[in-house]
Amino acid sequence: MSRPPEDQGAPITGKAQLVEWFSSSVKPRDKWLIGTEHEKFAFRLSDLKRLPYEGPDGIGVILDNLTRFGWEPIKEHGNTIALTHGGCAITLEPGGQFELSGAPLDNLHQTCNEVHTHLAQVREVCDELGVGMLGIGFDPKWTRDDIGWMPKGRYEIMKRYMPLKGNLGIDMMKRTCTVQVNLDFESEADMVEKYRISLALQPLATALFANSPFYEGKPSGFTTFRSHVWTDTDPDRCGMLPFVFEDGFGFERYVDYLLDVPMYFVYRDNRYIDVAGKSFRDFIAGKLPEAEGHTASMGDWSDHTTTVFQEVRLKKYMEMRGADGGPWNRLCALPALWVGLLYDKGVQDQAWQLCRDWTVEEHQMLRDAVPRDGLKTEFRGRSLAAWSRDVLGLAREGLRRRGRLDSSGNDETGFLGVLDAIAESGRTPAEELLAAYDTRWGGSVDPVFEELRY
Questions:
Q1: pTM to 2 decimals?
Q2: Distances in Å between the alpha carbon of 197 and those of 259, 354, 454?
Q3: Which of 15, 138, 154, 329 could form a disulfide with 212 if both were Cys (CB 3.0 to 4.6 A apart)?
């Protein structure tokens, strides 16, 4: 869906405008909200194959059938490629991964109700078509060539460019699923501290949610192959961002970083103009021949902020992006973890004290080790499982202090229960899947499609 010309936003006249775009997003604490997103794989029940867009049981039909629940279609060149309803959106990742981008909500009870309603609607439509949705971090069975592309123009550009930058970018596009939460901040200083805490602790979340141990029908050697994929996707737009921990980090430093990230596209007149690899600075200066006649706008800047893929991403809010997709209760647990850590000032301070003296080398070590070793990763003489129990204790206290109760008088701490069990066991969800593969599944990944089906 093209942005009408009048909605492209103001022309970009200088860097200060870009810094202001971020700084204008600060919110007082009483206005903070929670946005949760999750992706899932659509597959045919009869043969477990991933669904194409076209056909009587394809992704396009699922989208069209969901309009019975009040969803409004968004089309690109005649194809329904997204839906909107009540502040929520359903969008498609390149390989047809089905994503719910939830509305900004006040509390986790609302978040979980939203997820439950969405999955019930999707299940009703899918059951009629003989298809299902799978909650896992990396496609356990199918190859790149087995999976079709969704009819979205930006993906044509990305699939051409990705192999120029890394070996696993196409896998990222077609074969990964995640769950993430989007959070607010009250000032630049608050953003900085939140970014540092969440980037430092993201490997811990990755381990707790590790749920992608298979590659093309066999164990991959990783607890989260999805997380490994990001290490060989595109070094220009992925990685740990050491400058976040340096003195002087803030909105302007992040803008400088984004300006140096190569572009993917410019969107005008219902089409994507391929400028992959080109400089946004040159675009602002009117020096991109491919975009001749088009002035860089704040709408273009907003688009550009979505083309970096760090474990923590800053837009008008902060995105926690380190977790594998998984079953319903873990979709509610991921926002519970980060809201508990970052939405109470006292607990946030304690979380910062926990990790403030970790070195850049230690951050990178954790990022490198966790995809294989999960909660067994050793850090400063303790397993990551032990560190996780400490961090979950902080998150529980943060949720308790928030005091957001449901109609039965329960606070939000219950949503952490599934993570407490994982941390106590010291075994990632991936290790449970591997144990099933070795025993009751008889060396086949096929049963995972039923056991992790929504």
A1: 0.97
A2: 24, 9, 32
A3: 138
Residue with tokens 């194809």: 79
**CA dihedral for 240, 245, 251, 257, sign (positive or negative):** negative
Q: Name the one residue in this structure whose structure tokens are 């499609």.
A: 449
CA 335 vs. chain centroid, Å, equals 12
Distance CA 123, CA 225 (A): 27
Residue 117's nearest CA partner among 59, 58, 48, 71 is 71
Residues 395, 322: contact at Cβ < 8 Å? no
Predicted local confidence at residue 7, as pLDDT: 55
Tokens encoding 188:
């630049």
Count of beta carbons in the 10 Å neighbourhood of residue 285: 11
- Give the CA count within 13 Å in the CB-facing half-sphere of 46: 4
Query: 362: how many CB neighbours lie within 10 A of its CB?
Result: 14
In contact, 102 and 111? CB cutoff 8 Å:
yes
Tokens in use for 308? 């970096």
Contact 101, 37 (CB under 8 A): yes
In single-letter form, the type of residue at position 412 comes to E
The first and second tokens of residue 189, run together, are 């200083």
Tracing tokens 């003296």 back to the chain, one arrives at: 357
Rounded Cα–Cα distance for residues 430 and 212 (Å): 6
Q: HEC string of 212-236?
A: ECEECCEECCCCEHHHHHHHHCCCC
Which residues in the chain show pLDDT less than 50?
Answer: 1-6
Residue 83: CB partners within 8 Å, gap ≥ 6?
63, 66, 67, 71, 72, 73, 74, 89, 90
Summarised one tens digit per residue, pLDDT across range 41-79 is 999 999 999 999 999 999 999 999 999 999 999 999 999
Q: How many CB atoms sit inside 10 A of residue 207's CB?
A: 31
Residues counted in the chain: 454
The span from the CA of 261 to the CA of 278, in Å, is 9
Task: Return the pLDDT at 33.
Answer: 98
